[in-house]
Write a structure and sequence with these properties.
Layout lengths: L1 E2 L2 E2 L4 H12 L6 E4 L6 E4 L5 H16 E2 L2 E2 L1 H8 L4 H14 L16 H8 L4 E4 L5 H9 L3 E10 L10 E9 L10 H16 L4 E11 L7
Parallel strand pairs: 3-7
Antiparallel strand pairs: 1-2, 3-4, 5-6, 8-9, 8-10
Helix pairs in contact: 1-2, 3-4
InterPro entries: DUF4504
Length: 223
């Protein structure tokens, strides 16, 4: 899947299930609203324009990615209002093997930003949320506030007797004032239980997992 200059490799069935979960009432997704100063922690049921934009994109993905495979017609339907060159590019991409999808033109009319999309696609428990008309506000808020940096580290299973070195699986940040309890925040504990559940399915790869929390002082950030 290609969106602007980003390439994402997804399992269609699992991604379809993840999108469906994101749209369900069971989803307990947390967002940091960077359009506000100071930033505020909100959830998907908060009625803000940024949340509504996020939900709209989730519905787009829900139409394109199904548990039965990729719905090519949904991509073409989303692209029909754009230029002929964009539609032609989408047609060419789909016809190659229905494996690589360029959704850049489909998302042009949505206010969601790539950083927000990345946070969601990578499964962060807390996602930075802001619209395209609030990028400067988001940069200011992240550049002037201290952050907590959460890092998920793992050791590979190895046939060697000596333990393998720690490697980073993923990392994300949350404003310090919104994560005072670090890994003991309720959302962090829920996230860690989900990670440990995934470890059970990947025992052949991951020997152990751990989460570290550090502090980042205010610094210039580019989005």
């Amino acid at each position: 899947m290609v969106i602007e200059d980003m390439i994402y490799v997804v399992n269609v069935q699992e991604f379809a299930e993840y999108v469906a979960w994101s749209l369900s009432s069971d989803a307990k997704q947390f967002f940091v609203d960077l359009e506000q100063d100071p930033p505020k922690m909100i959830q998907a049921d908060d009625q803000t324009s940024a949340v509504e934009g996020f939900v709209s994109v989730c519905r787009l993905f829900s139409a394109v990615f199904t548990t039965d495979g990729v719905n090519d017609n949904a991509v073409l339907e989303q692209s029909k209002d754009h230029s002929k060159s964009a539609e032609s590019s989408s047609n060419d991409t789909i016809s190659e093997l229905s494996v690589v999808l360029n959704l850049s033109s489909c998302l042009q009319d949505y206010q969601i930003t790539i950083p927000t999309l990345n946070g969601w696609l990578l499964g962060y428990p807390v996602i930075y949320l802001f619209g395209k008309d609030h990028i400067s506000d988001a940069i200011y808020n992240l550049s002037t506030k201290p952050l907590h940096l959460f890092r998920v580290l793992f050791r590979r299973n190895s046939s060697h007797t000596s333990p393998s070195s720690l490697e980073e699986l993923m990392s994300f940040s949350v404003p310090y004032d919104l994560s005072m309890n670090g890994r003991n925040e309720p959302w962090a504990e829920t996230f860690w239980l989900q990670v440990k559940a995934k470890q059970e399915k990947c025992k052949h790869v991951w020997r152990s997992l751990q989460m570290e929390v550090g502090e980042c002082y205010p610094q210039a950030i580019a989005l």
